[in-house]
Amino acid sequence: MFFSTDMNIPLEFRSLLAPLLILCVGCFVWFSLYKQTTKPLAVHAKNPAHKSLDQEYIRFRHILLNWPRDKPKAAIYYLAKADRLHLLNRSLTSLRRCFLHAFDYPVIVFHETVSRDVLHGTVRTQHADIRLFFQQVQFNTPAHVNASPDNLLALKRYPIGYRHMCRFHAKQVYQQKILVGLKYAWRLDDDSLLLATINYDLFAFMDGHRLQYGYIHIWKSPSESKWTKHLWEAAKRYAKTKSIESLYFDKWTPPDVFYNNFEISALLRLHHN
């Protein structure tokens, strides 16, 4: 054993043993921690999708950090698919012509993994005059959804992809980290078209009038519509459970709904909720 024989070692050498031992142990511990911390980073860097998404997010944060003080922090967003690329291109062209040329706001395009390469390559090239940012999302069927015969029959008319889209716009989009820090978000569908020039800043108008929601028009949904079945009962129950008071909601006439393939939302309240 080392400690049973160290007394036979010359005094001047023995005085160096303790610091040398500490140094060796310290180097071993540091190297072990280094391997553990750098291994996940190496795996992450090898995934080009993760790297690309991180770059998009970092670019967007940089824009927010340098945002003009006299302009509300806002962005326009889409949920896009590669097989509907021609529709998205038309929508972006009309958006640029009718609004962005005068009021330069960033545009965020959310998409699934399968659409990544096509959207990133083609859309950014064709719309180089728009500040575009891409964000990948993943859709999973909620665990509480069952496969009953009624649900399977309904899927023929409204497939799972359509339902994922509805759920994203109603809830999941407000959980996307790239939107944190924004005051307003303007949703457009990939087939939405602006037909005339908008000669004022929509976001500044919302901000100046302290508005929380903007929409095209109200659509009178048939009372027997399956997509609004139990909606009002659920909304009233939720408001009561959360002790939410809203004179606007109390005056609302069922079964009217917002036609919301064009909507501008104040995000701070939605992020808080």
Strand residue percentage = 15-25%
Per CATH, what is the topology of the largest domain? Spore Coat Polysaccharide Biosynthesis Protein SpsA, Chain A
The largest sheet has its strands arranged as 3-2-1-4-6-5
Give the CA-CA distance, first to last residue. Answer: 65 Å
Point out poorly predicted stretches: 1-25, 27-49
- Total strands: the figure is 6
Describe this structure in words.
- This protein has 273 residues and is of the alpha/beta class.
- The chain folds into two domains: 2-46; 48-217 and 264-272, Spore Coat Polysaccharide Biosynthesis Protein SpsA, Chain A (Alpha-Beta Complex), CATH 3.90.550.
- Helices cover 49% and strands 15% of the residues.
- It contains eleven helices and six strands.
- A six-stranded mixed beta sheet has the order 3-2-1-4-6-5.
- β2, α5 and β3 form a beta-alpha-beta unit.
- 15% of the residues are buried.
- Mean pLDDT is 78; it is low at 1-25 and 27-49.
Task: Set down the secondary structure blueprint.
Elements: H1 2-5, H2 11-46, H3 48-65, E1 74-80, H4 85-100, E2 107-111, H5 116-126, E3 132-136, H6 149-157, H7 160-170, E4 184-188, H8 202-208, E5 213-220, H9 231-241, H10 247-250, E6 256-266, H11 267-272
Parallel strand pairs: 1-2, 1-4, 2-3
Antiparallel strand pairs: 4-6, 5-6
Please name the defining characteristics of this protein.
Spore Coat Polysaccharide Biosynthesis Protein SpsA, Chain A; 6-stranded mixed sheet; 11 helices; 6 strands; disordered N terminus
